[in-house]
Amino acid sequence: MAIDFDLVKEIKQRADIVDVISYYCSTVQKKGKGYVAVCPFHDDHDPSMQISKERQTFHCFVCQTGGDVFTFVQKYDKCNFEEAVRKVCDIIGFDDPRLHKQVYAKKIDENLVPVYNCINELQKYYVYALTTDEGKAARDYLEKRKLSQEQCAKFGVGYAFKDGNMTIEYLKAKGFSLKNIENTGICKAQTSGMSDNNQGRLIFPIKDANGQVVGFSARKINDDPEAPKYVNSPETVIFTKGNILYNYYLAKQNARHDGYIYVVEGFMDVFAFDTIGITSCVALMSTKLTKQHIELLRKLGVEIRICLDGDKPGQAAMMQLMAQLDEARLPYRLVSVPGEVRDPDEILKQDGEDKLKAYVSSLVDPFNFALNYYQNISPLGSIEDKKKVIHHFMPMIASLDSRLVQDDYIYKLAEATGFTSQAIRNSLKDFRRKTTTNAPALTYVNEEVDTSLNLKKIDRDVRRLTLAERTVLDLMFVSDEAIKFYEQDIKYFYNEVYRAIANFILEQHKSAKDIDSSAMIDELNTLDIKNKDEIISEITAIGFRKDKEQYSKKILEDCQVVINEERTKIYEKNLLKQECEGKSPEEQARIIAEYLKKKQK
Known about the structure:
By secondary structure, this protein is of the alpha+beta class. Helices cover 54% and strands 9% of the residues.
């Protein structure tokens, strides 16, 4: 944990969960002794989220989301615990030196620290150069491209003086060695001296996932036909192009809340999206997607929206990305407007913001994008190519629940390949038959034997046990006797979430007289354990539960009887399930019939 535990407790005491949730939700209202709000974590229309000012917790009994003030911010902003703590501080206007001293940072090689310091100083130098008289040509270019001063400041846009030696001399004066300067990637040591490769160009800093500048892309601002359009940093000790998505650091902060991330080709496309208010956007800096890029996108846990150029190379690149995203099993859609070959930046400059908004909102699923590609961009040639396309789409069509949608897909696939709809349906039948033949046998029992023993319904037998365990757990929060009873007579819960909470209670009971659910949540926030969200949610649910029992030895003893009975049943049925696994329906029926006879005796 990066933030001091005592500081977390202090922040939690200062923060009012009602105020923090109200910061995000306008539906918070007083109801009785507590507060309610429309839950932002599911499609809620009536206020189903309860908020306790007394306990400083919230819980929704519809989607089972619950926790404290930090949990709420984590889930709403889809951020980690440390980020949530700092966000709460921003909301309540609290600051403390410990927040800045212990900011989480990826551990880096100490030998690289001077290189990072050097490139950070270089970035400041480029930003300064943009404000000078010489930088006016770059400012004019930016104005022509309709990039505002606010955007330039946000993305750290700068300028490199035409005299490349000035850059080197500046960094040397700041105390950096020639080796460190070379390691930033802006120059190479030569016998004639060193000079900035970016000289006379507009500078776009490239940052890693933590917001650290690691390289630059320098664009020409004159009309020299011999000069390359961009000069990009080479790979260095701190910069590997395949690990970086441009603007990822800024985009990730909004993408988790927006629920999507756009992937575009270049910097100017990112700026175009920013102009129309879409901040969840990253650029590939080429049309290749690496495994490292895929992992960065996976971490966001959101829908990926691919928006590359509408020309033939851009559309072909999108087809390549589709294959990679399919293999990675990531959710995605694609921007597609047939006939539109311009990139987002061109659409914005030529047709305005409304046209670009409409363009980026034209999202299609992979199936329809691929069909359009094969029909209009790169029509299929050989029979073998057409067969490959049909085989590629078989799993997708077979998985569709709607017969109408399935027929629609088959009809479109027939149009794209030239095969008849009936031929494709026959292929679908063959695919399903092969899939069924190769699939593992399903375990089931003859309903005539005893429907109550249907192995698919074993989980239902857990309900009575769950209710009994939940009752004991509720009592453990209010009674020392219930804690002792659990420790001596019940010993463990079948439900693993209840079992984890009971263990926390036992641990807390050793050092404190009263059980403190808030302290329990604080401790959970610092741990990386299985089912953490479920455990926190259940702890908060106990506080809001209206049907909580008052302590009674009789209730505990009744629960113990139920727990012992149901444990035995579940144990026997699990053994029975294992014995039936892989057997034919007739053999399963025989095994269950013998089991019933033994039970009757």
